[in-house]
Amino acid sequence: MSETKVRVISALIIAPFVVACFVAYNSLVGLVASIVFLSSSELFFSTLKKYRKMGTLFFYIAIVTSYPVLYGIVFKDRPLELLSVLFITGITGTLYSVRRLDRVLEHYLMFALALIYISFNLSFFIPMYAKHGAALALLTLTLSWAFDSFAYFTGVNFGKHKISKVYSPNKSIEGVIGGIFGTVLYSFIYLWIANIFVSENIPLWYSLPFGIITGFFDTFGDLFESSIKRVYSVKHMGSIMPGHGGMLDRIDGLLFVVPIIYIFLEYF
């Protein structure tokens, strides 16, 4: 079976479950926490497993995963205070468990990276859902899916000019442009349907900035994760999603898109 068919089948199996989690606030929080758990596990085991500090890695995973749960249920109005306490807790644990100077900085950096890049950024879904509703939160998720799909097929068929031969040789300018156009179209159709059938009142002109934001930040999110994989000489962060790699490979662009879409919604 071709890789494209595997990607499509894998997405069709997982997508309905993910979409169903947007029905209620608590299930969304659970979904975010689950994705953070899987993604941070992949990051830690891909980068720090070589040091054989399994207890430290599980400690990191627990802290990073606790952020969306505590933020979504208990500390809704105190995200930065919670982030600071969890960061200090993780660093304190590192000082206790890692006793070698040639290893401690890498542990600091990977823990902080997972806490901010994965847990903090993905958790923007929580206030987005609470303030702006399920329709826009779900759209934000599917914007990334739409862009990745349109960019992939455009790049495969028309891609000639590479964006970065160092970090992602297969990603092309043509793919990004095609992805943006496709995402704008998808966003317009989604908003039109939502306004009719879900009684929303979302301006249709949002489709243009949504497409541009997604195209720009999804691309750099992908390049960011690709740079980490190349440093550690790994093709995929995990293998939980056939055809896509790991969970972090699937959401790398989304982690850059969600905070920016939330900021846009707050101002516009």
From TrEMBL:
The reaction(s) this protein catalyses: a 1,2-diacyl-sn-glycero-3-phosphate + CTP + H(+) = a CDP-1,2-diacyl-sn-glycerol + diphosphate
GO molecular function: nucleotidyltransferase activity
Keywords: Cell membrane, Lipid biosynthesis, Lipid metabolism, Membrane, Nucleotidyltransferase, Phospholipid biosynthesis, Phospholipid metabolism, Transferase, Transmembrane, Transmembrane helix
Residue spans crossing the bilayer: 12-45, 57-74, 80-98, 110-130, 136-155, 176-198, 204-224, 245-265
Assigned EC number: 2.7.7.41
Main subcellular localisation: membrane
Record-linked Pfam families: CTP_transf_1
Membrane topology type: Multi-pass membrane protein
Top-rank EC class of the record's enzyme: transferase
Location of the protein in the cell: Cell membrane
Lineage: superkingdom: Bacteria
Keyword Transmembrane: yes
Keyword Nucleotidyltransferase in record: yes
Protein family according to the UniProt entry: Belongs to the CDS family.
Protein name per Swiss-Prot or TrEMBL: Phosphatidate cytidylyltransferase
Annotated organism of origin: Thermosipho ferrireducens
Species classification: Bacteria, Thermotogati, Thermotogota, Thermotogae, Thermotogales
